[in-house]
Design goal:
The complex is a heterodimer. Chain A is of the alpha/beta class. Chain A is built from 18 helices and 12 strands. Chain B folds into 2 domains: about 375 residues, Thiolase/Chalcone synthase (Peroxisomal Thiolase, Chain A, domain 1); about 35 residues, no CATH class. The chains are: A alpha/beta, B alpha/beta.
Chain lengths: ~425, ~425
């Protein structure tokens, strides 16, 4: 089978603007979750999230003309993708080729994005018009073009990052935009890997991005009991929910041949992936960990990796009672008595939803390079339901260079990816 | 290793010209248009106040009230069309094999209900700016059912739960290419061996003040409000924008040998998928067809077919000035001399543009064209555009359809192309 290597990575979230920064922040043991600044949370039942500090559209995306056409989530997606593409050198290499070869190179370069679906704030662009219309839809129609940005619909597109990466870097190959909640980013890696294995492309940029920290979203998640009162404490007896983060992660995947032909620096290898659905509805998950267990087993089989060869596990570890305990059950069933060190990163910068899995891969690659399994600093007392899970507040040592990254999302979806680091 | 082939064994449709496959198909053959003044709300203040709505719809096959409570309009179309497809295929996931079933859907982007938005505006933003504190006592903003209905993956959640689909389940969105992308993804899942059967499709409904408003702001819609039946006229020289439709299309896909082993009726082989990015502008492809050309070539190569094998093209054919010209150029570039022979129609001329559902619905159209030996018309073609010199189907054509090609191009530049083949040519 075609070997798929990683030649670039990029990431941005509350804990930093590059994978190495984010790892350093995680290793410092301090969470980047802070009081929300985007709106006044006085009187709110929840007020903490992982916002990107000093969020600045221009430092994320230089082209100001673009700012009117895209949203906050697209800014972070384009930022991470840009860093990964630059780090890999694929576009610089393409631009050094004769025109005909360069055109073919572009056609063989794909983009796969995991993106959040609808948001609320975008719809609020219609609020001033609704005030003018005062409940009258005819007036709403008449006054539409006087009040609303003509590009409104384009700003709303869930696939903006895909389209704009294509335009900016001239990538024209196979592509997809996956709007599959929290597993979107990992699915982007799985689908990118499969297109390379199947010869549909020679290199694919995989991205996940999401900025879910907006009032109505936070309120809904709080109301259905998914948000923590304060800190996010995965696997802890006292855990009481997750917290949102925002940001993006990106990887450049290439066939080994493509990377070798231009002498690219290889930072990792995608070994395989797995995926399973529990089919219990949008919010429900099974207590027995059936979904994550099947996803992990499939990922190991697809990778040709034995459970004993896995050096560390980056769990979904979102801090909700039901997800963490069922995830622990799944890991214990697959790995038996021989579980590699387990960690999770969401305590440090929040749950990035569609960006979560792929950003966590970028951090895991940095961790493997530093030969460390970062601790879960907010962990005080392991929940007896998770007993036997080798998690720790302190850093551990990976037992090999192979990491398993897990992700779980709404609609009972579960994805797992196996990566070899350096 | 032998390549796993993919059979289409069931289809379901809810469209502006029929709430099932049979009714839709006869309308497509006759070119009976679905356009009319919008009835879902008073659209008379908008520059476009016509659309192709799904008419007299009720969930005839899916009556689970608890499930329906969590649906928006497009989810109800999806549940119905998916049920039709499963009944048609005569097979369903079971407790034993649910993990060998996948689900791949193209879901619409419009997730917030307009009624909910109005209520939130009234309560939490009466002056036009959101007051976050007021949101805490807002009705829709604290209604968990509104939350579920508004999630991008709610359609997927409803389908997988109802049918017990426990393998790879995914929701994709590349605007107007979404449905085609979902079919391509579904085909690959079976080829890879991850699953043996997939429920695949697309669903959308944007006929709301925000959806219509968004397209009006872009001047993308035809403003022929007095002649809604003629508003969508792909490839006609006088075309002036698309007609917004809504609905759902679903297919049951099976690994070929498994379908044969159970004696399933096979409509067609889902034989090839092509995917490209135009990387030109967010709203259209370049006039020379670059982008769509690569997707069509890839789909043919993936199907191990040549342009000469294709008897029918279901064009993206939106009836906008730019799309139809660019698509024509792409068809000429790929088909060369055989562009003169291959029959082409855009069924958007009849149904309007179903956005995220379009590629899936048009996939069903291609499967039916092969199975029935009939090709639907490109309605409303009166004045030929010299830039669109294609062999357009002006009256429904009968004849053997060996293979079909279906194009879907989306805002954002994604191009999807799907090739299907007559089942008798597979073995």
């Amino acid at each position: 089978m075609t070997k798929v290597v990683i030649t670039g990575s990029g990431a941005v979230c509350a804990a930093g603007v590059a994978p190495a920064d984010i790892l350093a922040s995680v290793l410092s043991g301090k969470t980047a979750l802070r009081p929300i600044e985007q709106w006044d949370t006085t009187g709110w039942p929840t007020h903490i999230a992982g916002e990107i500090p000093n969020f600045n559209a221009r430092t994320l995306v230089e082209d100001r003309k673009l700012h009117k056409l895209i949203r906050r989530t697209d800014l972070v997606g384009l930022y991470a993708a840009g860093r990964a593409i630059e780090a890999s050198g694929i576009v610089a290499h393409r631009d050094s080729l004769p025109a005909e070869d360069a055109a073919l190179y572009s056609d063989r370069s794909g983009v796969v994005v995991g993106s959040g679906g609808g948001n609320f704030e975008n719809q609020y662009d219609y609020f001033p018009l609704l005030t003018t219309a005062d409940g009258d839809v005819v007036t709403f129609g008449r006054e539409l073009s006087n009040t609303v940005n003509p590009m409104w619909l384009l700003r709303t597109l869930p696939n903006n990052v895909l389209g704009h990466i294509g335009i900016k870097y001239g990538l024209k190959g196979t592509n997809a935009c996956i709007t599959n909640h929290s597993v979107g980013g990992l699915l982007a890696v799985i689908e990118a890997n499969e297109s390379l294995r199947n010869g549909e492309a020679d290199r694919v940029v995989a991205v996940g991005h999401e900025t879910p920290i907006e009032p109505q979203m936070v309120l809904y998640y709080h109301d259905v009991g998914l948000l923590a009162s304060e800190l996010l404490r995965p696997f802890d007896a006292a855990r009481d929910g997750s917290q949102f983060g925002e940001g993006a992660g990106a990887l450049v995947l290439e066939t080994e041949t493509s990377a070798a032909s231009r002498g690219a620096k290889v930072i990792g290898e995608v070994l395989g992936g797995g995926y399973a659905t529990e089919a219990e509805g949008l919010l429900a998950i099974r207590a027995d960990g059936d979904g994550p267990e099947r996803a992990i087993r499939q990922a190991l089989e697809d990778s040709g990796v034995k459970a004993a060869d896995v050096g560390m596990i980056v769990a979904h570890a979102n801090g909700t009672r039901a997800s963490d305990s069922s995830e622990a059950a799944a890991i214990k069933r697959v790995f038996g008595a021989d579980i590699p060190p387990v960690t999770g990163f969401k305590w440090a910068f929040g749950h990035l939803i569609a960006a979560a899995g792929i950003l966590e891969i970028t951090v895991a690659l940095a961790a493997l390079e530093a030969d460390v399994v970062p601790g879960i600093a907010t962990l005080r007392e392991l929940d007896p339901e998770c007993a036997g899970l080798p998690v720790s507040a302190a850093a551990q040592k990976p037992r090999s260079k192979i990491v398993l990254v897990l992700c779980r999302g709404f609609a009972g979806t579960n994805a797992a990816v196996v990566i070899r680091g350096r | 290793m032998k390549k796993r082939r993919v059979a289409i064994t069931g289809v379901g449709l809810v469209t502006p010209v029929g709430n099932d496959v049979t009714t839709t198909w006869s309308a497509l053959l006759e070119g009976r248009g679905g356009g009319a003044p919008i009835s879902l709300f008073d659209a008379s203040g908008f520059s476009t106040w016509i659309a192709a709505e799904v008419k007299d719809f009720r969930n005839a096959l899916v009556t689970d009230r608890k499930l329906l409570k969590f649906t928006n309009r497009s989810h109800r179309f999806a549940l119905e069309a998916a049920e039709q497809a499963l009944i048609d295929a005569g097979i369903r996931p079971t407790e034993q094999d649910g993990h060998r079933w996948g689900c791949a859907v193209g879901a619409g982007m419009m997730t917030v209900d307009f009624g909910d938005l109005m209520e939130t505006h009234k309560h939490s933003a009466p002056e036009g700016e959101l007051d976050a504190l007021r949101l805490l006592s807002d009705g829709p903003a604290n209604d968990p059912i509104a939350f579920c209905r508004g999630q991008a993956t709610e359609g997927l959640a409803l389908l997988t739960r109802r049918h017990g689909i426990k393998g790879y389940a995914t929701s994709v969105h590349t605007a107007c290419a979404s449905g085609g992308q979902a079919l391509g993804t579904a085909m690959k899942l079976i080829r890879r061996g991850h699953v043996d059967r997939v429920l695949a499709g697309g669903f959308d409904s944007m006929i709301s003040p925000i959806g219509i408003g968004g397209f009006c702001l872009l001047s993308a819609l035809s403003t022929d409000n007095d002649t809604p039946q003629r508003a969508s006229r792909p490839f006609d020289a006088t075309r002036n924008g698309f007609l917004l439709g809504e609905g759902a299309g679903f297919l049951v896909l099976e690994e070929w040998d498994a379908a044969r082993a159970r004696g399933a009726r096979i409509y067609a082989e889902l034989a090839g998928d092509g995917n490209s990015l135009s990387s030109y502008r967010i709203t259209d492809s370049p006039p020379d067809g670059d982008g769509p050309i690569q997707a069509m070539r890839q789909a043919l190569a993936d199907a191990n077919a040549t342009a000469a094998d294709i008897d029918y093209i279901n064009a993206h054919g939106t009836s906008t000035l730019m799309n139809d010209r660019s698509e024509t150029a792409a068809i000429h570039a790929v088909f060369g001399e055989s562009a003169k022979q291959v029959a082409v129609s855009s069924t958007k001329s009849t149904m309007g543009h179903l956005i995220a559902a379009a590629g899936a619905v048009e996939g069903v159209v291609c499967a039916l064209a092969i199975a029935r030996g009939e090709m639907p018309v490109n309605a409303n073609l009166v004045e030929r555009d010299t830039d669109c010199d294609l062999n357009l189907v002006t009256t429904a054509k009968r004849g053997r359809v060996r293979a079909t090609l279906s194009n879907s191009f989306g805002f954002g530049g994604s191009n999807s192309c799907i090739v299907m083949r007559h089942p008798e040519l597979v073995e």
